[in-house]
Protein 1
Amino acid sequence: MSNSPIIFWFRRDLRLDDNLGLYMAIRSRQPVLPIFIIDPRLERGPWFSRNRTAFMLTALAALDARLRQLNSALLIRRGDPLEVLTALVSETGANALYFNRDYTPFARKRDEAVVRQLGIAFRIVDDNLLVPPEKLRKDDGAPFKVFTPFHRRWNMLTKPKIRELDFRAARFLPHAHTSSPEPLARARLQPQPHVPLPPADEHSAREQLSRFIAKSISHYAESRNSLVIDPFVDDNAGPSGLSPYLRFGILSPRQVYWNARDRYAEASDEPVRQSIEAFCRQLAWREFFVHIMFHFPHVRRGNFRPEFDNLAWRDAPAELTAWQEGRTGYPIVDAAMRQLNAIGWMPNRARMITASFLSKHLLIDWRAGEAYFMRCLLDGDPAANNGGWQWTAGTGTDAQPFFRIFNPILQSRRYDNDGRYIQHWLPELRHLPASHLHQPWTLKSTQLEYPPPIIDHRAARERALAAFQAARA
Ligand SMILES: Cc1cc2nc3c(=O)[nH]c(=O)nc-3n(C[C@H](O)[C@H](O)[C@H](O)COP(=O)(O)OP(=O)(O)OC[C@H]3O[C@@H](n4cnc5c(N)ncnc54)[C@H](O)[C@@H]3O)c2cc1C
């Protein structure tokens, strides 16, 4: 047994429980030195989010606290990962680096450089997906581009189980390198979030999961579309609100999947079983978009379908700002954008409605919306966000066809019929009767402190259809 440490590099897996890479490192019986590296390149990027970074720092503090209970601590350093790791190897004599795999193009490039140049043994572990990209291909070896057959195959494959770790057997490196009482202070990155943050520790994440599994999952098939106001404080009856936890690996996908499956095994009621299947299907969507970005990295910047590369997007900065601020005059769109600005999260239905409005009604390039979401969302994730935007804009793989354009008035009536969501996020419309909430411009009153519609729905629809058709021609 070697006494040289193994460096365990935390990235999108900010937990101790069911962390497969960490499990492997501990099982090697060498001492383990846990580190997180803050890469300043991310702070300079256009997707930098104060909200998400603040949430991540809270998660790091929670991880550090758990490690301290095990007589260790989380070493946090700042800088280029290769340089930081090279210095750490020479300081500690570490002879191996372990980490869980990150599948995005940016991370792959970074990790390849580290592995090539660090000059010590390494182990890269599949942890963040139930089925990694190499394990799921069509019979001819090509990657799937359409979700339904992807999902069928994904469903058939065996998923890894949750790994229980006995931390008493773990040998974490004692404090020599991590003696700072408050390592986050050294990170020199303390952004004030614009939004209240949900708790970011493993215990709270598991509680959110348990509450959902105990109750709301049983009617998820209908409620997944509900416009919930805040899944982190409400007695949530809609979707799970697990996305920030999955985004940062505070929960593993195995913990989520197997808890749902155990509930399925206990359920005798057919609608409950269907709801649990519907939930697991969403976990497959998460994996689908990671696979897409892995196999087709051009989607990171461009349309999946090149036929839309010539689309004449409009340059309309004032309209983009109105959309961002929730001032389009369409209450359902504005309520959703105000929710995003207020809590850093939106339910899936609201994301589809707002994304459709920007890319179709305003004919503004989906990449502007993608970037704004990335700046605001606590769960902002390159693959899921890109997949969601391209799906809605009609430029993506397996996309909604471009001629399907959400009607914001019908969406509003269907998903917020009693107007609860609109009234919560748009206080200026609280006094309106539900019958006028979806189209306040139909009111004769001139007293309204609310803008008229930024564009007429029918005209916008025709303009979008013409632009998409012209691009294809
Ligand atoms: C335009 C647009 C942008 C989006 N951006 C993101 C993003 O940046 N990060 C993100 O995690 N999700 C994104 N989504 C997907 C989805 O809206 C969120 O995952 C979901 O709303 C999160 O809430 P929840 O955890 O309550 O979801 P639930 O309905 O409870 O689903 C459980 C989990 O499944 C995954 N999931 C559910 N739906 C999807 C989906 N359509 N695509 C991928 N994964 C899914 C998420 O990890 C989610 O936490 C986006 C969707 C659209 C249309």
Note: Strands lie at 6-10, 32-38, 75-78, 96-100, 121-125.
Protein 2
Amino acid sequence: MILQIFFIVLGLIIGSFLNVCIYRLPKEESVVTPGSHCVKCNKPIKWFDNIPVLSFFILRGKCRGCKEKISKRYPLVESLSALVFSSYYNIFGLGIEMIFFSIFTSGLIVAAFSDWETRLIPDEVSLGILPLGIVFSFFNPVFQEAYSQNPLVVSLIGALTGALMIYLTGVLGKLVFKKEAMGFGDVKFMALIGAFLGYKLVILSYFIAPFFALSYGVYRKIRYKDDYLPYGPFLAIAAVFVLFFREKILDVIFYL
Ligand SMILES: [Zn+2]
């Protein structure tokens, strides 16, 4: 119980840091200095106005100084991060699996929201966390149950497969639609997913992502009548979906 609360609080604090990463990494700003400040009036945010989730509601979503609206992304990412850390503690228990999958999922969160807001997936996330997936391969429970090869090979081929699939999709998309369909950010991002999920599950994520993207794309078309559709968030959702439902999905595929 105490640990459960600890991981909710830790998740909230890390979520707050992920928000800084989402805002600053695409701009190539430091995530350490300067301290938190309002993006409009530049006033430093005092500690009591910087409490995850809570401060957003106390301030009613506005900066104390200039009343500029604070993005709903802040409490959203903080809650999401708290949910990840506390539920991963429940699922994986206290140990190396929980740590690595939490870092992986935190990376997915930063990539998804950066891509959503700026259409950029920072290299610090994809290339920065990828080596951890390779190191983790020896302890990765997914590799032990779904693959028979050496875990290091599964992870490396996974990264390569992910990158190659998105790269080829981009090349094909350019031929067919005569415009840039996939950015290089997506290529590196899918390499990260492959390093943590291995080649079979990264292929699975690749084929599942369009279902999420398509449902949102249709909604977007009806609601806003535009085609805004960064692909990173849907790759991230698909990766988490595959991580948790891999057995059920594979059962269904082999049953057909
Ligand atoms: Zn302000």
Note: The chain has a mean pLDDT of 93.
